[in-house]
Amino acid sequence: MNATQQYREIRPDGTREFTLSGYKLAINGRNPLKNDFSLTVDLTDASPDAAMLNVRPRIFFHLSALVVAFAAAAVASNVSGLSTDENFGWQICAVFAAIMAVLAASCAKKIRFTQFKSRSGNVLFDIARRGPDSAQYDSFVSSIAAAIAAAQPSPKDGSNQSLTGST
Q: Which helix (H) or strand (E) holds 116?
């Protein structure tokens, strides 16, 4: 398990690069609106069970709200008479609503995530099928699952006994 594998993802909220080496997974991430980060996950603490999620990016909902707000402002300014021939307020709001609608449509597609948890059930990390390496997503997730399975401690004789158990 000494081979090193890499996977890169690009999402609307930033980029991450994963490097699997042995029983360690290094994650380096960048987000233009937040801090960059770097962390290493010890896969011996991970559970072999993974969850598959299909999630629409959060920015889609923000842009959709802006579409509604700009469209409402366009209608309100036109109906209320605030907009005159010299005042292009409703047209400007309508143009902004159209721009936000195009942006929302461009990020409306759901993203597939594989979420890995610790043995106690806490989320350790997730990986998205998005970006330049999305064709290798399935094989990289399989490699992580295999590394987690190989990293699990083998049960020793008698370690499977119940704690409430009988003697």
A: strand 111-118
